[in-house]
Amino acid sequence: MDLEQRILKLVSSKNSYIHDDCAYLSKSQQLVSTDTLVENVHFDLNHFNASEIAHRLFVCSFSDIQSSGGYPEYALLNVSFPTKSFKITQQIVKFFKKLLTKYNIKLIGGDTTSSSKIYLSSTFISKPIKKNKIINRKNAQVGDSIYTFKDIGLSKLGYLSLFKKQYLKKNLLLKSKDQFLKPKIINYSNLFNRYKINSCMDISDSLYFSLNELSVQSKKKFLIDNIKDISPLLLRNFNSNKYFSLVLSSGEEFMPVFTGKLSNQDIKNFKKNRINVIKIGSVQKGQGVIFKELKNFKDKSFNHFKNTYSNI
Fold first, then answer.
1. pLDDT tens digits, residue range 239-259?
2. Same domain, 180 and 287
3. Residue 302 belongs to some domain of the structure
């Protein structure tokens, strides 16, 4: 168990409010999600501009609320920064407010204080949602299909191109850097509410981690037999080992991996909204995650307590 999981276990023990990536307030029927970005852990000022930092802060909580079946209505913003960083911090706040306006989320407060480097924390509060409409990690059902969205893997590739100086073709370089620095914001909550989604998790650590977490919490076997269709662009440009490594271990993609039963028409409806859903496997009796297309995968996902952008 890593450090993050040990802390989560400590605070969540016998806590009826905590629900996967969000807390749930039963009296007001609202989901609450909070995220923190720290300079030189989640971003550094040599590679990220104010717009990209604000974007990352926004998408973290936005994605958590959506993967639980809700849509954010209110936001809180806490900012800590040194005097020398006032100008860029001010720009970050302005860009963050623009995103809130774009997605019809109201900023209702927050706090500021001084610090040795930039710390940012956002809290999103959802529109009212009935408890039986919340999507969690433990309800995958035998017979469910397993789905995710297209093009996972680009975020890690962008990270490698920036910090490890990996050479890439121009088109691939631009797409991967864009996904890493400014992860795509996908608005899918309305579609999730239309269909029977039994379990879901936001891919912030990696697809590999998320699949294992869903399997463990649901106490079911996840048979994964279609990783190759997730990212055709990466499949065309890399050998199979590199491809699987990118797709399975890429963190901070902020897309959902979920289980349920979607018809072909349902998937077409997602596509009409410019969301490409990929069926990657099925839920079965048993335990563990089985990958039919590969063996001996070594997980190299991003870890906030081991890898930072200032020490790699």
1. 998 999 999 999 889 999 999
2. yes
3. no
